[in-house]
Amino acid sequence: MADVNKKSDREKKKRKFSFKEKYDRKQKKKQKKEAEQLVTLTNELLATQEDEKNLKEKVSKYTISVALPGSILENAQSPELRTYLAGQIARALVIFNIDEVVIFNESTQKKSNDGLFKGVTKASDANVVFARILQYLECPQYLRKYFFPVHQDLKYAGLLNPLDCPHHMRMDDPSPYREGVTLNRPVKGGGSYVNAGMRKEVKVDKLIKPDVRVTVKLDPYDDEDVEKKKYLTGSVVSPTTPKESDNIYWGYSVRLANSFSAVFTESPYKSGYDLTMGTSERGEVLDQMDLPNFNHLLIVFGGLKGLELSLESDETLHESDVGLLFDHYINSCPDQGSRTIRTEEAVLITLSALRPKLPNVT
């Protein structure tokens, strides 16, 4: 009987230890799983922060400029079509976040870029007309009356499709930034009042002469308290700040070049363009290219007769092969089914082909 009791005690003790071991194993497994999940979450968080950092670095690291001749407007058959063509180009520029557009003169008869012209006709300077329409479209609607008085070049502006860029805001659209114009009103304590297209004017910290377009960074405010305030407050920042700091595309700038060579030599960037591309059906197939690192990319499109005519029109350039002027001479649409690709088509095709290659630039 004693042996049976001892055996029973040993079995109970054995079962007791086996239950404890199973419990310990489950706990260890649970703790291991929780630790793995914590590591995974930590890694994901770090990866997200790193991606945001890289995105911010990429955004602030490079710019893209597009250059094309104003003569492409002369190929349109009527003033209305010339205006609409300029609008098509503008739409393509903002869709692909272009920072600068350069309109260059490829005519052998040099024209002045100053003074008044007869409007969108073949007798007017197509370069100036083109640039004026591009500037008009880029400007937010509520500011156009300040910077674009009635002009013959804009006679058919009603035909243009709106760009609807991030800085083209409605009155109550929330945004940390706004485009505005300084007003001719005295400010107590210094500074300036700005019309930023909102229900209230914005008081900025700098004294600026009236009728100047500025980019304003707004101080935080509560929508419900706007009506109670006399004005909102903010500070004047560079037009590049929204893109560099918050990845918000803020439109393009327009530059007129009196010659083909001026496209390269009059760059607004201190170090110039460190990567240049010319487009032609005789160029290297773009699909097979990898973009090198760059800070400022320039893509140049030719007119009706290609970049060869642009080279011939500039007496200061002595190269016989236009492709030698560029780091890359590219063909963005090989095996094309039409004998010619119009410039407005080439802009869309080339920028579409380049787009998937841009994120690889670090």
UniProtKB/TrEMBL annotation:
GO terms for molecular function: methyltransferase activity. InterPro entries: Alpha/beta_knot_MTases, NA-bd_OB-fold, Put_MeTrfase-C9orf114-like, tRNA_m1G_MTases_N. Residues 1-35 are annotated as: Disordered. Pfam families: Methyltrn_RNA_3. The keyword Flavoprotein does not apply. It is found in: Cytoplasm. GO terms for cellular component: cytoplasm. S-adenosyl-L-methionine-dependent methyltransferase that specifically methylates the N3 position of a uridine in 28S rRNA. Required for association of the centrosomes with the poles of the bipolar mitotic spindle during metaphase. Also involved in chromosome alignment. May promote centrosome maturation probably by recruiting A-kinase anchor protein AKAP9 to centrosomes in early mitosis. Binds specifically to miRNA MIR145 hairpin, regulates MIR145 expression at a postranscriptional level. This is 28S rRNA (uridine-N(3))-methyltransferase. It comes from Clytia hemisphaerica. The lineage of its organism: Eukaryota, Metazoa, Cnidaria, Hydrozoa, Hydroidolina.
